[in-house]
Amino acid sequence: MSFEKKQGGKRESRRRFAVLSALCLPLAFTTSCVTNRPNAEVVALQEQAEKGDVVAERTLGETFDFGKHVKRDYVQAAKWYRLAADEGDAHAQNNLASLYANGLGMPTNLTLAVELYRKSAEQNYAVAQNSLGGHYYHGWGVPQDRNQAFRWFKRAAENHNFNAMQNLSNCYRLGIGTASDLTESVQVGGGCRDHSTGKWELERAKRCASVSCSFEKNLTANCGD
User: Fold this and answer.
1) What are the tens digits of pLDDT across the range 104-157?
2) What is the pLDDT of residue 192?
C-alpha cells in the first residue's frame, strides 16, 4: 500500500504547506533570452490573482510550488495558496496542507496539515481524502485510528483516486480498519489502472506518495505521493 514513513523536515517527495509572509516580495520570474522580460503568462496570472481571483491565486501558488516558469519558492507558494484556501478552494487547501506536512516554506505543523486536509476532503477532493487517510493510518497530527483511515481511503477510492484504490485494496486484504475480505481486495485492486501523467502531475503524485508507502513494508519494517 502506498504508505511512506514520515521523514519530517523538508523533503522533496513531500506533501505541502505554509504560513506565509505578508511581504510583497518581487517575483523570481524566468525571462526570455530574446526580450529579457518576465514570462508574460505568469505576469498575467499574478495580475488576476492580485484582483482576488481564487483560481488565479491557487494557480500562481502552484506556479511557485512546482517552479513553472519561475524559480521555485515555497514561501510565495504558501502565500498564494493560503489566499485561495481562505476562500474555500479545496485544491489550495490540500496544497497548503502538504506544505505544512512537509515543512516547505514554513515549520512542519501536522496538526494544521490535518485541519486543512479535512477541509479539502470534506469538499470531496479525493487527493486530500487519501492524504487524510494516511495521516489517520500513521497517527500524524491526529490520534492513530485505522477505522478512520479505512473510511477516508474508501471515500477517495470511490472518487477514483489511484493511490487510494491501492490503499483500500490492502486494507481489505489485511483487515485494517475493516474485516478481511480478499474478494473485495481483488475487486478494488482491479480498479487500479496505470495512467500517464505530465511533468507537473508527476510532481504532484510524488508529494501525495509521501503520505504512504507499501503496507507490507509498513507492517514489517515500520516504513511510512
Assistant:
1) 999 999 999 999 999 999 999 999 999 999 999 999 999 999 999 999 999 999
2) 62
Question: Closest by alpha carbon to 132, among 114, 147, 145?
Answer: 114
User: Average pLDDT for residues 167-185, to the nearest whole number?
Assistant: 94
> Is residue 72's pLDDT more than 80?
yes
What is the pTM (predicted TM-score) of this model?
Answer: 0.72
Instruction: Name the DSSP class of 16.
Output: B
Domain range list for the chain: 40-221
Which residue, 201, 211, 162, is CA-closest to 13? 211
State the architecture of 40-221 in CATH terms. Alpha Horseshoe (1.25)
Give 32: exposed, middle or buried? Use CB within 10 Å, 0-12, 13-18, 19+: exposed
Closest by CA to 95, choosing from 54, 129, 58, is 58
Give dist(CA 209, CA 224) in Å, integer.
10
Which of helix, strand or coil describes residue 87?
A: coil
Cell triple for 94:
490540500
Query: Would you give the distance in Å from CA 142 to the centre of its chain?
Result: 17
Phi then psi for residue 179, to 5 deg, are -70, 145
Q: Express each pLDDT in 24-42 by its tens digit.
A: 233 443 333 333 457 898 9
Q: What angle do CA 164, 87, 65 make, to 5 degrees?
A: 60
What distance in Å separates the CA atoms of residue 15 and residue 113, rounded to the nearest whole number?
Answer: 9
Q: How far is CA 196 from CA 27, 59, 199, 211, in A?
A: 32, 22, 10, 21
